UniProtKB/TrEMBL annotation:
InterPro entries given in the database record: AKR, AKR_Detox_Biosynth, NAD(P)_OxRdtase_dom_sf, NADP_OxRdtase_dom
Pfam families named among the record's database cross-references: Aldo_ket_red
Organism: Paenibacillus vulneris
Entry keyword set: Oxidoreductase
Domain NADP-dependent oxidoreductase: 16-309
Record's protein name: Aldo/keto reductase
């Protein structure tokens, strides 16, 4: 396994991380636990979850699985998206974040998280309040590092500026949708992260499975695919993305690897990327994702992948989660 610093921090994370939003939803507790152990046993030390994944079941399952092995992983979770109907059950206020952190710690069966991330920008809460609350969490020992997620470049830069001005702990990472099917971060966010020493954590690196080549038509969802098990996923399917998946599959065949391994390997080589989180609902998927570490991505393959994905540098992001 390869390890990289998370941004400019001293924290080392595996270049391949484990995403867990399917735990407790599309993968039951037993399967999820097996996936966690298989990932850890193969060198993956970065596990990412959130307080809202599967209505908090993801955190609960991870907490049970890590009993006795908590010290082996870099554990990341998030808060900030909607948790309930109340006016204080969302956002990045001190009130909401402190309550959510305590609840996450209880479910995760730990007294600290390594990376606490704000799930999305909160326009109703002053950044100073959010950043002071996060700084207090770090000083208390309940949080080691802090990160952002789904922040626009100007929002992230404003937060970094406030932290510097007030002498507060700053975001070391930002989690965003980034893949061959979504290169929009390259316009503003990637240059910002390179300049400011912020590590990028891509989510949806396989565009929800589109880059695996499993989708051949808009109305033909493969058995057991996310498009079949999650009705909301259909909004991500489009003819141009399906065509991209087909082209990636062709290049992967030439390179002697799977489309998913090729897509992840390409993403790992992009500037400022610290760790690529990939979800799994089966152990076999983790095994397949690990093959990305041994892909020999030639300059020719890189150029071809960049060429066929060039249109996806522009337009709307593949995914962006914001407060309603």
């Amino acid at each position: 396994m390869q390890f990289r610093r998370l941004g400019n921090s001293g924290l080392k994370v595996s270049v391949l991380g484990l995403g867990t939003n399917a735990f407790g939803k599309r993968a039951d507790q037993q399967t999820s636990t097996q996936i966690i152990y298989h990932a850890m046993d193969n060198g993956i030390n970065f596990i990412d979850t959130a307080n809202i994944y599967a209505q908090s079941e993801s955190e609960r399952i991870i907490g049970l699985a890590l009993e006795g092995r908590r010290h082996e992983v870099v554990l990341a979770t998030k808060a900030g998206l909607v948790r309930g109907p109340g006016p204080n059950e969302r956002g990045s206020s001190r009130y909401h974040l402190q309550r959510e952190l305590e609840d996450s710690l209880r479910r995760l069966k730990t007294d600290y998280v390594d990376l606490y991330q704000i799930h999305t920008f909160d326009p109703d809460t002053p950044l100073e309040e959010t950043l002071r609350a996060l700084d207090d969490m770090v000083r208390s020992g309940k949080v080691r590092y802090i990160g952002a997620s789904n922040y626009a470049a100007w929002e992230l830069m404003k937060a970094l500026g406030i932290s510097e001005r007030l002498g507060l702990n700053r975001f070391v990472s930002t989690q965003i949708s980034y893949s061959l099917a979504d290169r929009t971060p390259e316009q503003e966010l990637v240059p910002l992260c390179l300049d400011q020493g912020v590590g990028i954590i891509p989510y949806f690196p396989l565009a929800g499975g589109i880059l695996t080549g499993k989708y051949n038509a808009l109305d033909a969802a493969p058995e057991g695919s996310r498009a079949q098990t999650d009705p909301n996923f259909s909004r991500f399917l489009s003819e141009d993305r399906i065509a991209l998946g087909t082209k990636v599959s062709q290049l992967a065949a030439e390179a002697g690897c799977s489309p998913s391994a090729l897509s992840i390997a390409w993403l790992m080589q992009q500037p400022a990327v610290s760790t690529v989180i990939v979800g799994a609902t089966r152990i076999e998927q983790v095994t397949e994702n690990l093959r990305s570490l041994s892909v020999d991505l030639t300059a020719e393959h890189q150029q071809e992948l960049s060429s066929i994905s060039e249109p996806f540098r522009y337009g709307a992001p593949f995914a962006l989660y914001r407060l309603p």
